[in-house]
């Protein structure tokens, strides 16, 4: 009996920047973080969440305080001239955030930090992630990731939208996503879990 050694991989994509309105004065951009992996470190093999820049800043600070001896990769700098209506600025930041996560995910010590997994695989706020990691919540880290995944499956609408988009792919307008707008169900962010592995 010989066991094939399957190469572990973690694919992370930071994509689909969207402007979200906080109130009538303030807007911010959040990005979809898509994970696809076969790594045993991960509770979920595919996941999809939306995070904004300042949550990345929080994550980096927490990882650094936990792994003092590691030189953490830098985030794209917070520039005072950042313009969310400038596609080049937004894409430059998106690339920087993706490179940051790619480097973080290559480090075994950082991978062992529960905050990283909650950041990547749930939509919990930094305060809630902190509470969960320090045992102040009824749910564990794995519970939080599983319940987010099951919550994520209640949005078949966007899958239908995607099928329609595929059919009229020749018109490559972006208008279909704007119809959804920055409402709360953008939490689903179009991540399709493979139905085969999803019997809970």
UniProtKB/TrEMBL annotation:
Topological type in the membrane: Peripheral membrane protein
Gene Ontology biological process terms, A to Z: cilium assembly; intracellular protein transport; vesicle organization
Basic and acidic residues bias (residue ranges): 156-169
GO cellular component: endosome
Ranges of Low complexity composition bias in the record: 174-188
Start and end residues of each PX domain: 9-126
UniProt key word Glycoprotein: no
Subcellular location: Cytoplasm; Endomembrane system; Endosome
Pfam families (alphabetical): PX
TM ranges: none
SMART domains: PX
Region (Disordered): 156-200
Keyword terms, alphabetized: Cytoplasm, Endosome, Lipid-binding, Membrane, Protein transport, Transport
Molecular function terms, GO-annotated: phosphatidylinositol phosphate binding
InterPro entries: PX_dom (IPR001683), PX_dom_sf (IPR036871), SNX10/11 (IPR043544)
Family: Belongs to the sorting nexin family.
Name of the molecule in the record: SNX10 protein
Organism this protein belongs to: Poecile atricapillus (Black-capped chickadee)
Lineage: Eukaryota, Metazoa, Chordata, Craniata, Vertebrata
Gene that encodes it: Snx10
